[in-house]
Write a structure and sequence with these properties.
By secondary structure, the chain is an alpha+beta fold. Helix content is 48%, strand content 18%. The strands form 3 sheets. It has a 5-stranded antiparallel beta sheet, with helices on both faces. It has a 5-stranded mixed beta sheet with strand order 7-9-10-12-11. Helix 7 runs antiparallel to helix 8 and helix 8 packs parallel to helix 13. It is elongated and about 155 Å long.
């Protein structure tokens, strides 16, 4: 019955045609009735055809396809990227943006999550003007970061920006945090190096002026000042040597050494070279070495500098303990073969100083360090050399218990 109803219009039209033929005497009424009955049976037996009427909005399909491609392109970027519609609602965030802004979700205005005034102004300005906006975003919470933010209107070909109801704005974030930190480190380094050189240089100039003036004919004063001037000149020379050494190490930081070195023989050589300083400080260097060779891959001159710095520091700053112990043995850590430990029994340092001991120009007591001819670069040089050799440097110390420095090498 439902099928007959769905074809009622067609049957009525057929009945009208048959009636016209009967009235014009072109068709017998009985035959016309038979034809109508047959068509009704056929209509009841045939399955109903489905007719769908779809409303197609010109350009809607193309806009949806374009947005999918744009989202796929954003996902391919390594920097955080957001897609915003004309109302600044987030339509897509790539993986990097989701990691940078974990609370952000699509379908909501971007200002729900990012309320920085400069960012809001840049997004609004780009939407109103259709021009790209760029600025530097500085955030202090939860940690201090810098980003270069670029807000770019995405224009479709042959479509006016302000007439495009599907217009999008792309917001990208390029991290500048590491560059800022490197710049800060460079500035601090230059300031510290200048300060370290300025002090002995000012002392030299002062003594030279004195020798040229009041002490010009004072033999005793001249000899005394010359000794001091020599010490200041040696201090500047040592500082320059350390700066050049650190620069050379950093140039080859990512190039792994290929030489073969016997650590036991190297440590004996370092001890022999420091015996004079040890006797002057009334310190004994006690070594515990394996009977056979302990071979590792490395740069001989750089590893000599590492252990010379460590043992020299132990002699200078741990002399009150009277003994410096140097031990070479197997490393009890996966991925490393050798461990060299340098231990003194001096005053030690407070725990808060330990993590900063390898920073350039970091000193716990600057006056004591200068009196002992320290430049503040020794442990920084040691750290860079050990890292170049794919090793690990650890420092342990407690007040009154001395200091222990371990170097693990593969």
């Amino acid at each position: 019955m439902s099928r007959l109803l769905s074809r009622a219009t067609l049957l009525l039209a057929l009945a009208g045609v048959l009636l016209a033929l009967v009235l014009s005497a072109s068709l017998n009424p009985i035959n016309a009735l038979l034809v109508l009955l047959i068509m009704a049976v056929v209509a009841a037996l045939l399955p109903a055809a489905e007719i769908r009427i779809e409303t197609v909005v010109p350009g809607a399909t193309e806009a949806a396809d374009d947005e999918q491609w744009i989202a796929a392109f954003a996902d391919a970027l390594t920097d955080p990227c957001l897609l915003l519609d004309r109302r600044a609602i987030v339509t897509h965030a790539n993986g990097a943006a989701a990691r940078k802004f974990p609370n952000l979700s699509t379908g909501n205005p971007v200002t729900f999550y990012l309320r920085n005034p400069d960012l809001v102004q840049a997004i609004d300005g780009a939407g109103r003007s259709g021009a790209t906006r760029t600025f530097e975003l500085h955030e202090t919470l939860p940690s201090e970061t810098w980003d270069k933010v670029v807000v770019t209107p995405l224009r479709r070909p042959d479509v006016e920006w302000f007439q495009d109801e599907d217009r999008l704005v792309i917001v990208t974030f390029q991290s500048l945090t590491e560059l800022k930190r490197v710049d800060a480190m460079r500035s601090d380094f230059v300031a510290n190096a200048s300060h370290e050189l300025r002090t002995p240089l000012a002392s030299l100039l002062g003594f030279i002026d004195t020798l040229l003036g009041p002490a010009a004919k004072d033999t005793a004063a001249r000899e005394k000042f010359l000794v001091i001037m020599r010490g200041q000149a040696e201090r500047m020379s040592k500082l320059i040597d350390d700066l050049l050494s650190l620069s050379r190490i950093e140039m080859h930081q990512h190039v792994r050494p290929t030489g073969s070195i016997d650590l036991a023989a190297l440590l004996r050589e370092v001890r022999d070279g420091l015996q004079m300083q040890a006797r002057a400080a009334n310190v004994e260097i006690v070594m515990t070495l394996p009977d056979g060779p302990a071979t590792t891959t490395g740069d001989r001159s750089q590893l000599y500098e590492v252990f010379e710095n460590l043992i020299d520091n132990a002699v200078k700053y741990g002399s009150s303990g009277k003994t410096v112990e140097v031990q070479l043995g197997a490393a009890g850590r996966v991925g490393f073969q050798h461990q060299v430990s340098v231990t003194d029994h001096g005053p030690g340092v407070e725990p808060e100083h330990v993590p900063r001991l390898t920073e350039r120009f970091y000193r716990i007591d600057a006056d004591t360090s200068r009196k002992k001819k320290g430049t503040g670069l020794g442990l920084a040089i040691v750290k860079h050399i050990v890292h170049r050799h794919r090793g690990v440097l650890t420092i342990k110390s407690k007040p009154g218990e001395g200091m222990r420095v371990d170097v693990l090498l593969p």
